[in-house]
Amino acid sequence: MTQPPGAPQWWQPQGQQGPHSGPTPQPVAPQPHAYPAQPRQPASFGGSFSSDYGGFGAFDAEPPANRGKSRKPWIIGAVALVVLAGGGAAAWFSGVFTGDVLDQESLHEGVATVLQDSYGEQDVSNVNCPENQRIAAGHTFDCTVDVAGKPRTVSIRVLNDKPQYEVGAPH
Question: In whole angstroms, what is the distance from residue 148 CA to residue 129 CA?
Fold first, then answer.
């Protein structure tokens, strides 16, 4: 690195110049050159690691522009929405939101008991009712039973949400 004439050298200490410090530098008239004049910083003993140019981004006239808000929260929100929608659709199609339904085993036992106690049919077997019958007042469906070895059909009507139901006569 070359230094302009009259500037102290890196091995020369800064500060007051004593009688034995050597010749006193004379001011030099500025010489025309192609680059604009840069303000001089005093050199320190041992040289300097700084430069007039600086480091990363030193040539930018303005600070870097703000990119705006991050899109990361929107991406996370979209993924969460897709996961929740998929879970809701799976629950809907699996019948979770269909409401309460009659218990198959209790329904079969109840139909057999009503046919024996109310209709006097002693030989009742193979009670078969459709699954997932909803508990709603007025809902009706048919069950098949074997009475005395013969297949019969009985109509079931749900009376309320307790669930109480009415068993029709076998036909």
Answer: 18
The Cβ of residue 87 has, within 10 Å, a number of other Cβ atoms equal to: 10
What Cα–Cα distance (Å) separates residue 147 from each residue in 128, 151, 154, 168? 12, 6, 11, 14
pTM: 0.45
- pLDDT tens digits for the chain (171 residues)? 566 676 666 666 665 555 555 556 566 655 555 555 555 655 555 555 555 555 565 555 665 566 667 889 999 999 999 999 999 888 887 766 667 888 889 999 999 999 999 999 889 999 999 988 888 889 999 999 999 999 999 999 999 888 899 999 998
User: Is the C-alpha dihedral spanning 16, 22, 28, 31 positive or negative?
Assistant: negative
Give all strands of the β-sheet with 150-158 in edge-to-edge order: 124-128, 140-147, 150-158, 165-167
Cα gap 31→6, rounded to integer Å? 13
Token duo for residue 83: 């996961």
